[in-house]
Amino acid sequence: MQLNIVKKTKLIYFYISFYFQRYLCLFLIYFDKAFFLKSDYSHYKMFTVVDLLEQELGFQGFKQFEKEIDIIKKNISTKHDFPLIYDADKANYFLLYCLIRELKPEIIIETGVANGLSSNFILNAMLLNRKGVLMSIDLPKYPDQKVGLYVTPNLNDRWNLIIGSSIFKLKSILKQFSEIDMFIHDSANTYHFQKIEVLLAFKKLKKGGIIIINNIGHSNAFNEIIEIIKPHKKFVLRQEDKKGDFTGVIIK
User: Fold this and answer.
1) How many angstroms separate the CA atoms of 139 and 18, rounded?
2) Per-residue pLDDT tens digits for 84-101
3) Structural domain count, the chain
4) Domain CATH number, residue 222
5) Fewer CB atoms < 10 Å away: N or C end of the chain?
6) For residues 12-45, b (16+ Cβ closer than 10 Å) or e, as one string?
7) What confidence tens digit (pLDDT) does each residue in 181-224 have?
8) d(CA 174, CA 152)
9) Which domain holds residue 33?
């Protein structure tokens, strides 16, 4: 009897916490869309993913990774519980995979998982590197929505999935590490989510570490972040599948 009461109490707490985070995030998203839509990235040179890897990052041997990417794509599950529009742009997952295979990072944190396309490529790169841990944060639309269905069981040893809002969870996760190698923002692509997450992650990012921010064209957050942190290098990547939007890349 007492055990049932404890279980029911935990379940009630879970649902209250879930929906509190969910509705607070929705409020913040709609607030940002109403007041923080202005953005201008015309003063940046726009890179394709290949140009960025070759010309700016000096990766000459990344062509070998293309075959690996093609094999991974063929083996990705067709099962999904999020709309396919949530899947990462080709330029993004191509860049992520090549960076991880080349640099062999130990600790990566990402916000926003959905079906787990980026997560799948990150974890497959780590598997081949025999090195690395991925911490992922995602808050689905409803409690039973399945996050990360593209991530196959053989990748789970290197993956820690945390269900909740990045606004609430990121700070406590960052406290677990003295430094991180890479941070990927792909949760709500709006002003406050981008700015809060990146500024928090940058404090723990090691020298030479990389931050990737998806869909920076949705707000002016990237410009403001650059002014605050003054990184060693910054780039804007033109997306391939989602025409008209961009990905921000920061190197500390």
Assistant:
1) 8
2) 999 999 999 999 999 999
3) 1
4) 3.40.50.150
5) N
6) eeeeeebeebbeebeebbeebeeebeebeeeebe
7) 999 999 999 999 999 999 999 999 999 999 999 999 989 999 99
8) 26
9) 2-251
